[in-house]
Amino acid sequence: MHSFLKTGKLGPASGAGPSGDKQAKGQKRGNRPTPWVEKYRPRTVDDVVEQGDVVEVLRQCLSGADLPNLLLYGPPGTGKTSTILAAARQLFGDMYRDRILELNASDERGIQVIRDKVKSFSQLSASGIRPDGKPCPAFKIVILDEADSMTHAAQAALRRTMERQTRTTRFCLVCNYVSRIIEPLTSRCTKFRFKPLGEEKIIERLKFISSEENVNISSDALHSLIDAAGGDLRRAITCLQSCARLKSKDDASEISTDDVVEVMGVIPNRWIDGLMNVCEEYDYYKVTEYLDQFIMEGYSAGQLLEQLHLKIVMCVTISDKHKATICEKLAVCAHRLQEGASEYLQLSDLCCTLMLCLRQ
Amino acid sequence: MSLWVDKYRPKSLSLLDYHKDQANQLKNLVKQGDFPHLLVYGPSGAGKKTRVTCLLKELYGSGVEKLRMESVPITTPSGKKLDIKTISSNYHIEVNPSDAGIYDRCVVMELVKNAAQTHQLDPTGQRDFKVVVLTEVDSLSVDAQHALRRTMEKYVSTCRLILISNSTSRVIPAIRSRCLGVRVAAPNQDQIISILQMACKKEGLTLPVELAKKIVEKSERNLRLAFLMCESCKVQETPLKEKQEPILPQWQVFLKDTARSIMHEQSPKQLMEVRGRLYELLSHNIPIQIIFKGLLKELVSNCDIKLKAAVVEEAAFFEHRVHQGSKGIFHLEAFVAKFMCIYKKFMEDSVIDMF
């Protein structure tokens, strides 16, 4: 009997082994280098850069007000997912995992999943007190990330669920293009647009990160980085980290503009200028030869279109009528490229238009 | 006895023949222990895959060279069963998701997520993460790319992705902003020549510079093609001679003849004949993009610049159509018919002008 009890007692003691291991593992994971994007993700709602309205609403909710259904939309890298995750973490603390259902485009999100998983999750009621006695909102949150890639049928299936379960569940839809969300859903949510981040805010954030991580970056390089990122903070941070990593540790040299240009995949200006010059010469063979070289260098045609567009719009020597013609062609080519058409053919088509326009 | 292409493929980053700065940067990257997701892009035959294998070797040592082929069964949501071929070692797994056609999203969801969710079995191994190599990302559907987005962020502690593609135009911005882009430009003429000469020297042959130049020109800076041509020259005649002509693949000659016959006569009868030839090309698995490019290059040679612009525009239009439809021959034929129409009209007009 005694020995039996003893073995019984041994159980938890031996059980402590793996949990101790887990702790060690956890520590190891803490030391593990993480991408800066994850490391500097905002932990609280107040950390979120810019985006005043949404932050205000969430802050009020944190201090006890009710939370509406949310629809967050805006260009990539403006902090949509970060904001809602940070808010949820603050709202629920340790119970975070039980109260959140996060579904994104990598999960199966057909109509069946909406009917079964989401519905059954949203029907459970939640208590208004945390296990440690503190009050917390008496609802759960379903986060549908990348909601613009959900099928229309699945979105339609959400409609009624969303209304019926308002007592126990809030929905938060996150997407890039609000136009791809069906009307009945948008009218059920409070819409918040996330603006592309302003230059000063990104500079501030990047400077903070580079001082934390001991990165040397010249201010010129910083500016070209921000220009290329176009308001996408994630892209800017990833780029900064990539630049820092490509430098070896003993080599304490500054990150230069060239490094940034290479990492961001931006096409150097000499190529764009060269293309314009070749087109002005009005010789088809020279143009195709130039294009061949361009493609061989491995630059992306999509990027070329973007940069060329800027160049054309800013150019003073081309008349407005020709600008319109060229821009129309740019749009057509960009669309076709997106659908997988051959780069060579589309670019030659564009260059022919350019040649004819520049000639007149 | 392996092909020269495989035999002289560099096995480690320090042995790479060109883009040495980049190789050094990649080395630095590996040294720091951490590693972002990579998007390797460049024209074909520039050495993207070679660089990735070298990088993997640098990461994990020679263990990655023990490869095994597996076929993984995958069930789509609609209940269809698919088999996907993967090449994997203990440390990495390589998949071409476009093998699954329109079901590539399932591959990304099942296979990549499974690989990403499981931890490395041996905790004392050198790295904490595994690598998933996805090839031909540019033919990945938009749905599948969306599915990748969150997976890339969520499982970043256990898994890194290396995406290989020919161009970034088709890769959605959300993925591009999560990856470190590595551009692999095609080697230039001198680089190809010196590499070919090195290989020939090791084979106990001398490669005349004249012949090497010809090979480079014909191969359009594609190193793989250059190697294959060089080897076929050797088979044709050893020792290599200066005057030797590198053999073009038969279909290229065939394509040129086709273009010539279109220029020669523009009539419905000729169109029928051309159609037969196009079918012939397609049945030999020549990609439609390449047929379009080849035809265009030949066809515009005899036009004035306005006509050229018109023909190029039509080619771009019909080639885009190919990607929307499923049967390429219709669009190829439509292009040929359209060209005949434009060209004939132009010729008639110029004849009228003469009088």
Low-confidence spans of chain A: pLDDT under 50, at least 5 residues?
Answer: 1-30
Sketch the major β-sheet of chain A.
Answer: 5 strands, parallel
Q: How many beta strands in the DSSP annotation of chain B?
A: 7
Structural class of chain A: alpha/beta
How many β strands of chain A by DSSP? Answer: 5
Query: If helices are DSSP runs of H or I spanning 4 or more residues, what is the number of helices of chain A?
Result: 17
Distance between the termini of chain A: 104 Å
Subcellular location (chain A): Nucleus
Protein name (chain A): Replication factor C subunit 2
InterPro entries (chain A): AAA+_ATPase (IPR003593), ATPase_AAA_core (IPR003959), DNA_pol3_clamp-load_cplx_C (IPR008921), DNA_Rep/Repair_Clamp_Loader (IPR050238), P-loop_NTPase (IPR027417), Rep_factorC_C (IPR013748), RFC_lid (IPR047854)
Pfam family, one (chain A): AAA
Structural overview:
Chain B: Residues 34-190 form the AAA+ ATPase domain. Chain B: Keywords: DNA replication, Nucleus. Chain B: It comes from Frankliniella fusca. The complex is a heterodimer of chains A (360) and B (355). Helix content of chain A is 59%, strand content 7%. Chain A is built from 17 helices and five strands. Chain A has helices at residues 2-31, 36-39, 52-62, 80-92, 96-99, 111-123, 152-164, 183-186, 199-212, 219-229, 233-246, 257-264, 269-280, 284-296, 301-314, 320-338, 343-359, and strands spanning 70-73, 100-103, 140-144, 169-175, 190-193. Chain A starts with a helix and ends with a helix. In chain A, α7 (152-164) links the parallel β3 and β4. In chain A, strands 2-3-4-1-5 form a five-stranded parallel beta sheet. Chain B is α/β, with parallel strands linked by helices and 355 residues long. Chain B has a seven-stranded mixed beta sheet with strand order 2-3-4-5-6-1-7, with helices on both faces. In chain B, β4, α4 and β5 (130-134) form a beta-alpha-beta unit. The longest helix of chain B is centred in the C-terminal third of the chain and has 27 residues, at 328-354. The mean pLDDT of chain B is 84.
